[in-house]
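Support request, please re-run this one:
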Amino acid sequence: MTRALPGPTDHVVVVGAGLAGLSAALHLLGAGRRVTVVEREDLPGGRAGRLDLAGYRIDTGPTVLTMPELADEAFAAVGDSLYERVDLVPLHPAYRACFADGSSLDVHTGADAMAAEVERFAGPAEAAGYRRLRDWLERLYRVQMRRFIDVNFDSPLGLLGADLARLAALGGFGRLDARIGRFLGDERLRRVFSFQALYAGVPPARALAAYAVIAYMDTVAGVYFPRGGVHALPRAMAAAAAGAGAELRFGQRVTRLERSGERIRAVVTDTGRIPCDAVVLTPDLPVAYRLLGRRPRRPLGLRHSPSAVVLHAGTDRTWPHLAHHTVSFGSAWQTTFDELTRTGRLMSDPSLLITRPTATDPGLAPPGRHLHYVLAPCPNTDIGPHAAAWSDLGPRYRDTLLRELERRGLDGVEAAIEEECLITPADWHAQGHAAGTPFSAAHTFAQTGPFRPRNLVRGTENAVLAGCGTTPGVGVPTVLLSGKLAAARVTGVPGRGTPRPRPSVTAARPATAGATDPTAPAAPATEGRTG
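Re-run finished. Output below.
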């Protein structure tokens, strides 16, 4: 049984209409609670926001969507359906990996297609190793999901049980890089199945092998793209919540929480006061703790994940070798992670994520134009350049990235740019993200599972946290689960929606109409947030 909030919880105020807040709202509505959602921006989404720039419709946050059935659980809680509200296109390939030696590999989620591609790329022995790796990833996911990820921990003792022994037997407490190396000898292939550790803020050589579950989500479960952009997901969730009776208040900033002893009695915004029985707080941890006036006691301070520089570029041309998602690896590997997590330097030989959403949905750009998103991991402001330094550093690093892209085959890229928006750690810092990173606390062992900042806060009876800083962690699937777990803290009943099967679409279909309303108000340029 999940430990639940004491006292009445009839009316819940959810602070923040990002993915976590909207997930919490839907699960709470499904459990019969009255819900008010308060959001400082003029549209839903939080990190998964939208920037409209001269006809380019830009996702300012995550561009990779996996495990859509977890989102559908939230819709199902109110009798709705993700698949009826959002047109999801499965991406084939999920990624294209390009390497410094000029080779490339398409990452397919079908076992036979991927085995054939690995054999073409590195030979039959590596293809056999891939099949063994895939089997291991599937078993790892089955052990972890419902026992270690989709669960509220009240104590580290909650880890104990048969599933912990199964996870240990699978090698989940070894090192990710070494475990992947048991299946694959080709160093390039090992990168494809271990770079996801960076999402968790830990180099593959130091990350727990258990974090290969992220590679499962990317390379086995499948990558999807909603028509209209990833922002179509929070917009659909907000519509479903409103249809189920939630009151959505946009453009209102929460200024304080009105307390009586250990209970929050009202949420006070810049426009008024909202009485409540319970509160779900989804802002980044420093903002949430400041509102609560409480900070948990930890023997060590939190370590934060690396940050990112993101260049959104609307161009008059594109480059045929780019897939929807292209991971462009530099020659360096260990050096790159040392720079990002230890020395605090910008990557000397960067590995980049290049997303071309108009490959799937041309309607995201004006006719004949293309949209490109370049994400370059960089040190957070705790160990790297401080936020103020990025006012000068940002434009120079933008030029460096464009020169590197030119060198990697995007000839004429700078001249092709018609509209652009550059997001740096200074922007994440301005949004209230600790250490200037949208990826929150790193998933070190001491910040994982029951050791991660809890979604209950000592000294406040009726407040719950949700979002990437709390349990279970960073990433769209886990953030959606964090909202579900927060709702379970309010209701005392673990939410179990009825997820429908994923749509069996085999090819991306071009579209000119997005799944979201193009007349909706635009997010400000500083709303460019990922994670």
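Residues 305-439 form one domain. The CA atoms of residues 148 and 449 lie 7 Å apart.
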